[in-house]
Write a structure and sequence with these properties.
Elements (H helix, E strand, L loop, with lengths): L1 E3 L4 E2 L5 E2 L2 E5 L4 H11 L6 H9 L3 E7 L5 E10 L2 E9 L8 H15 L4 E7 L3 H9 L3 E11 L5 E10 L6
Parallel strand pairs: 7-8
Antiparallel strand pairs: 1-4, 2-3, 4-5, 5-6, 6-7, 8-10, 9-10
Helix pairs in contact: 1-2
Length: 171
């Protein structure tokens, strides 16, 4: 079912687009893996998504500009009053269109319904657009994981651990 039929997310100072967000399920694991693979150097396979979605408190969401054009995903879990975004990615061709923002807000809404009062995530220290998105939604840096991400060339990148209390800020 659709969680949010439209979120007038700003794509530029002149244009707006409608974003559709829906819950993902076990039938989407191959698609989630393919989208993850198009987004990150460290690729997760369908079995990894199936395993993660089978865990207690886990859920995934998809976002796109139409109900058959999913271009972004979020995978999260809720436990002991806290939520964690395990992975969030947007296809390179669909970035900077508000999809990730819509997913973070929808993830926070779903996590709050499941009893969470705050949310955590890791983001690459070098990912300035994602960091700006999260900071704009009220996240603050609470930790650093050195060498957390591994790139295809073997280089490692640090991850910042971010936290936000609910409700999230809106820009």
């Amino acid at each position: 079912s659709t969680l949010s039929s439209s979120a007038g997310c700003k794509t530029s100072w002149r244009s707006y687009m409608s974003i559709v967000v829906r819950a993902a399920n076990q039938g989407d694991v191959a698609f989630l893996a393919a989208l993850h693979g198009a987004t990150f150097d460290e690729k997760w396979n369908a079995q990894a998504f199936q395993s993660l979605l089978s865990g207690a408190g886990a859920f995934a969401l998809l976002a796109g500009t139409a109900s058959n054009d999913w271009q972004s995903f979020a995978l999260a879990r809720v436990a002991a009053g806290e939520a964690e975004i395990l992975s969030l990615g947007t296809a390179p061709s669909a970035r900077r269109k508000g999809l990730a923002r819509a997913l973070v807000l929808a993830t926070a809404t779903e996590a709050a319904k499941r009893g969470a009062g705050e949310i955590f995530l890791e983001v690459s220290a070098g990912n300035a657009p994602a960091r700006a998105l999260y900071l704009g939604l009220g996240f603050a840096e609470v930790g650093l994981r050195q060498g957390y991400y591994r790139h295809l060339d073997g280089a490692h990148a640090d991850a910042l651990t971010l936290r936000a209390a609910f409700p999230l800020a809106h820009e």
